[in-house]
Amino acid sequence: MIKTVFFTAITLIFFYIIWINNFFAHREKYEMPEQHAKIAEDVKTHAKEGKQLFEQNCKACHSVRYDAVYISSVQANPELKTLQEKYGKVLPRDVYESVFQKDLNGLKESFGKVPPDLSTIYLVKGKEYLYNFTLEPQKVLPGTSMPPVMIGRPEETAKIVAYLKSVAEPSPEEKSKRTLMGVGTIAYLVVMGVLIWLWRGKILKKMGLH
Fold first, then answer.
1. Cα separation of 180 and 46, whole Å?
2. Where in the sequence is the domain holding 13, given as residue range(s)?
């Protein structure tokens, strides 16, 4: 029983680190004016305008596939509509990358690599990094190929961050599914641990070692 409890505790700690607080990951700290931080956090008020700003300034290179926002050359491709009728507005990653490989390779030739899809970038980098990098990319990452399209536009940049935050946050239904999946996984591991412990005891008893 002690081994089962220990195994369960290790499992819970593992999922806590993976899903909630990975304290092993290195995180740079970036400054962000309080008024702009409030804008970035206020998804309900600023995400819609942030999406418009993203489409005007960032969509030439970056996609937000989770929100069906694709790079400009793909958006203008008539094949996109056909694929969306088949797969839905949010195309599967493999379909998107294989069908529009020519468009993505065109960006690679221009920038040295394909600019990343930004669907989950908020979860990975956080608002402070995104705000500073979008506003002054060379200052945060010297030598980057990203042009400073938002320089001198801090409030609009914060609204773009608000949009990226809104995309990164799953719907209440999706959150419930993820929670249920997490609880189900942990419950499965606990039950299996108990059954294995009981089976081990039964085998040892048959062998006269218990």
1. 30
2. 2-20+173-206
Amino acid at 121: I
For residue 180, the model assigns a pLDDT of: 82
Residues 101 and 185 in one domain: no
- Max CA distance (Å), the chain: 78
Let me know whether 136 and 61 are in one domain: yes
| Helix (H) or strand (E) segment spanning residue 5 | helix 2-19
Query: What are the φ and ψ backbone dihedral angles of 48, each rounded to 5 degrees?
Result: -65, -50
Q: Is residue 45 part of a domain?
A: yes
Q: Which of 187, 202, 125 is nearest to 161 (CA)?
A: 125
**pTM value?**
0.71
CB 121 within 8 Å of CB 165: no
How far, in Å, CA of 122 to CA of 22, rounded? 15
Mean pLDDT by 10 residues, the chain (210 residues): 68 68 65 96 96 96 93 93 92 91 91 91 92 95 92 96 88 68 83 83 76
Distance of CA 30 to the CA centre of its chain: 20
What local confidence, expressed as pLDDT, does residue 22 receive? 61
Per-residue tokens: 143: 């030598």
